[in-house]
Amino acid sequence: MTVAQGTPLVEMRNINVAFGGVHAVRDVTIDLHPGEVIGLVGGNGAGKSTLMRVLSGAHPADSGEILVDGKPVVIKNPRDAKAFNIETIYQTLALADNLDAPGNLFLGREKTTRFGSLDDSSMESETRKIMARLNPNFTNFVQPVKSLSGGQRQAVAIARAVYFNARILIMDEPTAALGPAETAQVRNLVRQLKEEGIGIFLISHDIHDVFDLSDRISVMYHGRIVDTVNKNEVDADAVLGMIILGKKPGEVSEKELAEIELRG
Amino acid sequence: MANVADVAPVPGQTQAEPPTRTSIRGLFAQTEIDSRLFGMLIAFVLILVTFHILSGGTLIQPDNMITMSVQAAGIAIIATGMVLVIVSRNIDLSVGSLVGLISMSYALWMTDWFPRIFGLGPDVPFQWLLALALGIGMGAAVGALQGFIIAYIGVPSFIVTLGGLLSIRGLVWYQSEGAAVVGLDPTFDLIGGGALGSVGGLITWILGIVGCVAIIAILYNSRRQRRRYNFPVRPMWAEVLLGAVGCGVVLALAWFANNAFWPKGLADQYAIDHHVDPNGLQIPIGFPYPIVLLVIVTLVMTFIATRRRFGRYVYAYGGNPDAAELAGINTRWTILKTYVLMGILCAFAAAIAAARLNGSTLDIGTSYELYVIAAAVVGGTSFAGGIGTIPGAVLGAFVLAALNYGLSFIGVNSPGQNVAAGVVLILAVGFDTLNRRRGS
Fold first, then answer.
1. What are the residue ranges spanned by the domains of chain A?
2. Residue B1 pLDDT grade (very low, low, confident, very high; cuts 50, 70, 90)
3. CB A107 to CB B228 under 8 A?
4. Is the pLDDT of residue B348 over 90?
5. Cβ of B15 and A140 within 8 Å?
6. Taking CB atoms and an 8 Å cut-off, how many pairs form between chains A and B?
7. How far does the CA of residue B149 sit from the closest CA of chain A (Å)?
8. What angle do CA A67, A72, A73 make, to 5 degrees?
9. Does residue B316 belong to the interface with chain A, where contact is any CB pair within 8 Å?
10. Shortest Cα distance from B16 to chain A (angstroms)?
């Protein structure tokens, strides 16, 4: 068990996000340490993705504070987040389908020649190198990524996050669209990155994934964090209970428990 | 970079190397020629040949082809910018009116403003250059304003530029209070083409040779670059073929353009001025200035679209606006710049239009927007966004021009030409849609 000690890599304090009248994230405080994986779980609309979109700069928080390495930072857009080495693998993958793999990998951070024009050869070369490590079967570097398989598209999205020295990695449902072999590969990657001291927020619906990979598990319900627990101190039923009922195990009545049994 | 060398590869997914094919299609694929562009080139030639036959073998002559090209030049120049606008999921309906506004401005500046301001009479030195610079600034400013409203305020581009179409055309009337203005600077008029507005025989040959050298240099450089990174390269025969065909076409065009000659009146005048024998005097016309301008614009715009960050961002935004935003691209600034570019291109097209007329009228540039959009779309630009090429749009403009010119050459009137242009537009996109559906 990784002990959460020292200065956290990132802290989000009292984050609030509202869309019109809908309070998507309410007063959420969460932290992440180097080499730690936090599983972020909750039902649909619980606010997991919105919370992470705040950290990745895709959506500004209405209030709250973000600290990186203990220092308050302002993240107004994805560029700010990337400047703090916060990389995100979005559930939608966020690929431009009409561009090829190198075009997507370097999107927004293109390599240029000394005359300021795109250095496509160098970008293709770097893409070939990282793909040789991530997914040696990946050979299509010139076709638009639209023509790639789901797993290959995922590989491009992952490569983009890993290539640029991520320190904080947000993975939003990274295995949702993958086959068993590719899922195993992503799991291996998560362990690998963790060993290198990268902090990872892992959003997943797959409770097995979460228990397998996480150190701590944060459960969200209707925009709030129900509880953040050490993986070793809970079982899947307890977490499932928090996801469905939005209450800590001690607060749940017998009747509600019976309901979960029925559903489970 | 994170060390991820130990991640286990997924077994059983090895993609087979493409087998070495010897079919015509396979050989064609090895040349890496854009098959869509190639198809359009064929369509263009077929249209010309068809009308050549219909006209009893009189259409394809240097004079006719030069006239046709000059007619296409303005539309083609704006179409290069329309590609980027449509690729980024927008539209610009105001280009025709903007051409009218800038064209009228050129005319007023050179006939009225400059002579008064500088007090030098009608022949202000370098006023053509000053006018052009101001016109480009004007186009950029109007483009920036429209682009700002579209990108930063969020009014749909269709609405903003529809408003531009109406109001800018209205401004043209106020500029001259409804009058046509004629009598521009003679140097300025060169940009309109014609016998005098062409580079002449010698420079045409020089340009042809420069073009050849450039083609070979680009092929060589690209091959060397790919070799350096150990990427797969085209087979040598394909490189040689591309170089030879490219050079052959460029030199053939130079030869063709040099087979158009100055009209007799002008040649006789030249003979008198230069004390040479007017009998049998044939002065080659060569490439017209507007075509030289078009070639430069096409090269620069292709460079911007494919080799610059801005172009990459335009395509990325068109492919997936969210992805572009999440990648940290300043998408609003990118969109605004596409409209600034449009305005600048309108200034060039306006110069050609005004110079051809040696002045400006109220309705110059009217319905340009429709032909420009048609050219871009015939050239393969997709309204779904993210897809389209600049050479394609230029070819599209030439396909439409060939159709119009060919029809008028065999005596079909302007309404008939419009019917044909409309049908071809729908057919072209229809074929393309079917093709893509089959491909995916």
1. 10-85+165-263, 98-164
2. very low
3. no
4. yes
5. yes
6. 133
7. 22
8. 90
9. yes
10. 10
The per-residue pLDDT for B268 is 85
The encoded tokens of residue B66 equal 């030069």
Question: CATH homologous superfamily of domain A10-85+165-263?
Answer: P-loop containing nucleotide triphosphate hydrolases (3.40.50.300)
**3-state SS string for B31-91:** CCCCHHHHHHHHHHHHHHHHHHHHCCCCCCCHHHHHHHHHHHHHHHHHHHHHHHHHHCCCC
Distance between terminal CA atoms of chain B? 35
CA geometry: angle A243, A244, A250, nearest 5 deg: 75
| Residue range B16-60, pLDDT digits in tens | 444 454 677 777 777 778 888 888 899 999 999 999 999 999 999
Identity of the highest mean pLDDT range in A185-189, B102-106, B112-116: B102-106
| CB-based contact B370:B418 (threshold 8 Å) | no
Sheet with A22-32, strands from edge to edge, namely A22-32, A10-19, A63-68, A71-73
pLDDT tens digits for B315-336? 999 999 999 999 999 999 999 9
**B202-259 tens-digit pLDDT:** 999 999 999 999 999 999 998 998 888 888 888 888 899 999 999 999 999 999 999 9
**In the predicted structure, residue B7 carries a pLDDT above the cut 60:** no
Q: Give the chain B residue nearest A105 (alpha carbons).
A: B327
Nearest to A110 among B312, B317, B320 (CB): B312
Which DSSP symbol is given to B288? B
The half-sphere exposure of A164 on its side-chain side, counting CA atoms within 13 A, is 27
Average pLDDT over residues A41-62: 92
Q: Cβ contact (<8 Å) for A165 and B316?
A: no
* pTM of the full structure: 0.90
CA distance B145 to chain A (A): 25
Could you report the per-residue pLDDT of B351-369, keeping only the tens digit for each?
999 999 999 999 999 999 9
Beta strands in B322-388 (DSSP E): 359-360
Quote the CA–CA distance of B84 and B87 in Å, as a whole number.
5
Q: What is the pLDDT of residues A90-100, one digit of tens each?
A: 988 999 999 99
Kindly tell me the burial class for residue A261, based on how many C-beta atoms sit within 10 Å of its own C-beta (0-12, 13-18, 19 or more): exposed
Domains and CATH numbers, chain B: 36-48+58-198+288-439 (1.10.3470), 199-287 (no CATH)
Q: Is B280 on the interface with A (CB under 8 A)?
A: no
Cβ of B323 within 8 Å of Cβ of A96? The answer is: yes
Contact B306, B76 (CB under 8 A): no
Report the share of chain A in percent with pLDDT over 90: 57
How many CA atoms does the CB half-sphere of B163 hold within 13 Å?
12
B91 min Cα distance to partner chain A (Å): 19
Average of per-residue pLDDT across B123-147: 93
